[in-house]
Amino acid sequence: MATAEPIIMPGYQGEAIHGPYDDPDGDSDVDSDVPDNSYTSVEAAFERINAAAPRGWRVELIEGEIYVTPPANGEHEEVVSELSGQVRDHNKGVGRYTGIGLHVPGASDTGHVIPDLAIAPKGSFDDQEEWHEPTGVVLVAEVTSTSTADRDRDKKIHGYARAGIPVYLLIDREEGEVTVYSEPSGDDYTQNPKYKIGLAVPLPAPLGFELDTAEF
User: Fold this and answer.
1) 68 vs 6, 8, 57, 85, CA distance in Å?
2) pTM of the predicted model, to two decimals?
3) Interior CA angle at 141 toward 139 and 145, to 5°?
4) Would you give per-residue pLDDT tens digits along the chain (216 residues)?
5) In sequence order, what DSSP letters do the residues of 82-138 get, joined into one string?
6) Which of 14, 133, 170, 174 has a Cα-to-Cα distance from 149 of 20 to 30 A?
């Protein structure tokens, strides 16, 4: 069946995009002779949409669904900048990466995510690839927006935990909270203390300093 080329438009922002790889009526092909190409189909759709997205738009494959998000607003970027600056103040030996693409284990074989901030040893992404293995990443951070908050609070946790990333920092502007996920086990984190924005937030090893969220 021919598939129309995707069109990127504001209506896509923050929403899952479903395509021919879905089975909306529940009539699966398990008992038929039709091959199951769901994984390759969603990957192909992801590649097409990612290639067509305007500069600055974020295309991610999270738990088997494709999400397209427009560029963040200034308030969001101020929080990311403040977080990045505090990490640098406490450890100038690590790299602070925004807009870096990571492969993480997904509901299917893989997922493609772009955290708001990734902390890793300098040189970790010194190549020409668009998507990178998360080996060496010590912290990922997401700053919620209205269109991204649900998946930041839920779906992204699983991929980051499966990848073994030690710390996932969720700065939830809508809830006025910071959650520090640590000690990954399976597809979740065993520790997830919450703090009100405005307080000092202790970050576990390997960063090991108190994050001042008063500027958030």
Assistant:
1) 11, 8, 7, 27
2) 0.82
3) 170
4) 444 443 333 334 444 554 433 333 444 444 444 444 555 688 899 999 999 999 999 999 999 999 999 999 999 999 999 999 999 999 999 999 999 999 999 866 789 999 999 999 999 998 889 999 999 999 999 999 999 999 999 999 999 999 999 999 999 999 999 999 999 999 999 999 999 999 999 999 999 999 999 989
5) HHHHHHHHH-TTEEEESS-EEEE--SSS-EEE--SEEEEETTTT-SS-SEE--TT--
6) 133
**Distance separating alpha carbons of residues 95 and 124, to the nearest angstrom:** 8
- As a residue count, the chain comes to 216
If phi > 0 it is left, if psi is from -120 to 50 it is alpha, else beta; for residue 14 that is left
- The Cα–Cα gap between 165 and 135 comes to 8
The token duo for 179 is: 């959650």
The answer to whether the CB of 137 falls within 8 A of the CB of 165 is: yes
Task: Cite the DSSP H helix spans in the chain.
Answer: 38-52, 74-90, 149-153, 155-162
